[in-house]
Amino acid sequence: MRFLVQKFGGTSVATPELRNKVADRVLEAVNEGFHPVVVVSAIGRLGDPYATDSLLSLAREIDGQLPGREQDLLLSCGEIISAVLMAATLRRRGLDAFSLTGAQAGIITNGNHTDARILRVEPRSILNAAAEGRIAVVAGFQGTSEDGEITTLGRGGSDTTAAALGVALDAVAIDIYTDVDGVMAADPRIVGDARPLEKVTYNEICQLAQEGAKVIHPRAVEIAMQKNIPLRVRSTFSDSPGTLITSHAEVFPGAIDITADRLVTGITYIRNISQITVPVTGRESAAAVFSALGEAGISVDLINVHPDVVVFTVRETVAEQAVSILESLGLQPSVRPDCAKVAAVGAAMTGVPGVMARIVSTLAAENITILQSSDSYTTIWVLVPGQDMERAIRALYRAFHLGDG
Ligand code: ADP
Ligand code: MG
Q1: pTM for the whole thing?
Q2: Which of 204, 257, 324, 375 could form a disulfide with 265 if both were Cys (CB 3.0 to 4.6 A apart)?
Q3: Does 184 sit in the ligand 1 pocket, CB within 6 Å?
């Protein structure tokens, strides 16, 4: 059977009209000879009654910090409601559709509540139904642990559900439908005229996603990559072909020379970062900084260690905690709040001279201060004041000609 997994995000299933658009996409797949397996997110965004954040805020009125197990049970309802409504919409349009919870769809996870990992998929119910021509609509973002507890998969979890089902069913492709035309070289909310990339490799998209591009979750990409199942990111609302995510050879046919790749694939960002500077008086005190933060489970980033000072970044939400830990060690940290990490990501950046130079001169021309920087084989990061972030992204997008297609 030629399975096609079709995942629809929260904005795609928010209203009856939109759910009919989704049904159009499912009917198209049927008409093209595929057997669709539909995965849905919860309906809408915060403020919509059954959106993930709305459910959470309901509980927060009673208990600021629900136990993970309880939170998972609550949140799983959002996707279940969405799946039932979507299946009903499809039946209305003449398809023999029915809904499944993650557990019923055979999504087996570990027991790590609120951020569980999928261990395996047992797609029996989907396969049995498919043999009778019935179309499953699966509640995304959720699964069950071995002992029958409902779990959720963390941010972007419905993408992960779709990818895992795609692999388990050996699908022809996994289509991630969303509210933009595809993966762009920068967030279209910031670069208004950004256009979708036609093709990208799994690796490129993994890096973009890890550095903050929220259009697809990196875990989903990693799963699809294991069996080389193509992913497509497309719009529910337009006929744009979207972005094909596939292996290197298919994106760059005949290209063995890595310099033939794109230098920079995209510009991404992570907001709400604090930069912490800690004067130190020797090797022991520098080491103490990182072991104390590590013990507290605070992850640090953009680390620069100098003989007399240590500089690094943390998420704004843990900055206060980090400072009090450091003060308890007798250190005197200073904090610069409201920074943003902007990253230029590209598979072929390795060893190409001049990329950093171009970034520095571009930001200088914009009068944007680089507070810190770092680089790897594939990524150059700069930390900038939060208020300058959007300008930095737009300037870098132009400097690397990412709008040229
Ligand atoms: P869904 O609810 O469909 O899962 P998400 O909000 O998770 O949708 O992802 C889609 C959003 O990702 C878009 O609205 C867009 O603003 C954002 N986004 C961030 N970076 C990019 C990028 N590089 N390309 C496309 N979209 C991006
Ligand atoms: Mg998403």
Answers
A1: 0.89
A2: 204
A3: yes
